[in-house]
């Protein structure tokens, strides 16, 4: 990979300027020499740290950015074997979960020749059944069958945690099962409806995105899993509710004795509220950090004000920032933002198991997509 000195310069200058550091030119000529000699350059540990924080601060779709400066960075660039990488991913889960007091963290691996195939480190399998229906998470059907092809022993349950798939160079990808005791999960119950726990719903505690490319100063880190804590609507209004995901609203509405043939009785809205209450109540009861959408909206507005104070414009994607619940009662609903993509950032990339043609057709027009970055 040939590093681009122009992009390196932009990032290093920003790093020196925001941290009020002197002698940026010395560092820039050092980087220039390194690129001339080797074709690329290595960020110093403190540059990498700040670059990761900026990548979060620049993430237009994230409502949780008030906390960008508290991100912890695990520099794992020296690791070279599948097993070492798997151990580091397990440590990431433990460090992030922190017995429920979740810490935002990113683990950065060598930018070359390491691939983690998973979309998130913890994710539930989805199985297409003979009658065409799906058991588990429909979003994971394709990846699940890929894992089975690689030799994974499926359980065919509704909430089976998928294995980690790691590939070095173009060797055969290697599967690792995460030990059950390091996967924190929260069983869902409702503060008033005792039938709710009989639905046997649950969700994992920490979302750890592992399919995005971290770009800092022109260098792309294809393996840089990052995590924060959940906002309740992500689980309750989307993962468990979307008709193309776990699709649990009809089941909950039935238990509430609502007639699901009548739009006008707002059965989906009732069911959504009950599911959101259950997620917040159960996470709180289990001592696992989670934020509701009202607090998240307030925190985001605080972030916007702090950025303005520092003479920086917040870029944001309105359709992602506004939570999928009680939208107009939140301050973020009534604002507008510029959705320009700044560097450093996290970008989407196509799943590693897809062919070139599939990649092209799906993402060629998306500004966040790394295949169209250069
Ligand atoms: N929406 C994704 C999910 O439900 C997680 C995205 C990251 N979310 C976060 N709170 N850091 O799994």
Automatic annotation (TrEMBL):
Residues 61-68 form the Nitric oxide synthase (NOS) domain. Heme binds at residue 62. It catalyses: 3 reduced [flavodoxin] + 2 L-arginine + 4 O2 = 3 oxidized [flavodoxin] + 2 L-citrulline + 2 nitric oxide + 4 H2O + 5 H(+). It is an enzyme of class 1 (oxidoreductase). InterPro entries: Nitric_oxide_synthase_Oase-su, NOS, NOS_dom_1, NOS_dom_2, NOS_dom_3, NOS_N, NOS_N_sf. Keywords: Heme, Iron, Metal-binding, Oxidoreductase. Pfam families: NO_synthase (PF02898). Gene3D superfamilies: Nitric Oxide Synthase, Chain A, domain 1 (3.90.340.10), Nitric Oxide Synthase, Chain A, domain 3 (3.90.1230.10), Nitric Oxide Synthase,Heme Domain,Chain A domain 2 (3.90.440.10). Its EC number is 1.14.14.47. GO terms for molecular function: heme binding; metal ion binding; nitric-oxide synthase activity. The keyword Ribonucleoprotein does not apply. It comes from the Bacteria. Its cofactor is heme. One of its GO terms (biological process) is nitric oxide biosynthetic process. This protein is similar to the oxygenase domain of eukaryotic nitric oxide synthases but lacks the reductase domain which, in eukaryotes, is responsible for transfer of electrons to the ferric heme during nitric oxide synthesis. Belongs to the NOS family. Bacterial NOS oxygenase subfamily. Homodimer. Catalyzes the production of nitric oxide. This is Nitric oxide synthase oxygenase. It comes from Marivirga arenosa.
């Amino acid at each position: 990979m040939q590093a681009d000195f122009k992009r390196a310069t932009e990032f290093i200058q920003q790093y020196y300027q925001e941290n009020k550091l002197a002698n940026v030119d010395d560092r820039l000529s050092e980087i220039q020499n390194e690129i001339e000699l080797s074709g690329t350059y290595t960020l110093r540990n403190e540059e990498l740290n700040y670059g990761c924080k900026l990548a979060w601060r620049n993430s237009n779709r994230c409502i949780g950015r008030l906390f960008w400066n508290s991100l912890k960075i695990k520099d794992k660039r020296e690791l070279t074997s599948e097993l070492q990488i798997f151990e580091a991913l397990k440590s990431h889960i433990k460090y992030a979960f922190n017995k429920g007091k979740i810490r935002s963290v990113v683990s950065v691996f060598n930018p070359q020749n390491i691939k983690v195939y998973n979309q998130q480190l913890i994710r539930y399998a989805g199985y297409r059944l003979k009658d065409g229906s799906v058991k588990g998470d429909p979003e994971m059907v394709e990846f699940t069958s890929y894992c089975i092809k690689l030799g994974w022993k499926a359980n065919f349950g509704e909430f089976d945690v998928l294995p980690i798939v790691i590939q070095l160079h173009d060797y055969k990808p290697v599967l690792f099962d995460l030990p059950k005791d390091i996967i924190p999960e929260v069983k869902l119950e409702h503060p008033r409806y005792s039938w709710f726990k009989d639905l046997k719903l649950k969700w994992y505690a920490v979302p750890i995105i592992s399919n995005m490319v971290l770009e800092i100063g022109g260098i792309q880190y294809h393996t840089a899993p990052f995590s924060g804590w959940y906002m309740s609507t992500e689980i309750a209004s989307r993962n468990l509710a979307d008709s193309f995901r776990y699709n649990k609203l009809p089941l909950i509405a039935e238990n509430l004795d609502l007639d699901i043939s009548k739009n006008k009785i707002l059965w989906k809205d009732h069911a959504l509220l009950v599911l959101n209450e259950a997620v917040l109540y159960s996470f709180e009861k289990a001592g696992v950090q989670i934020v509701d959408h009202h607090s998240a909206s307030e925190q985001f507005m605080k972030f916007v004000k702090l950025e303005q104070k520092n003479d920086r414009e917040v870029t944001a994607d309105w359709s992602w920032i506004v939570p999928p619940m009680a939208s107009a009662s939140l301050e973020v609903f009534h604002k507008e933002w510029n959705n320009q993509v700044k560097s450093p950032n996290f970008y989407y990339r196509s799943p590693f198991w897809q062919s070139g043609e599939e990649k092209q057709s799906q993402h060629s027009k998306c500004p966040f997509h790394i295949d169209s970055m250069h």
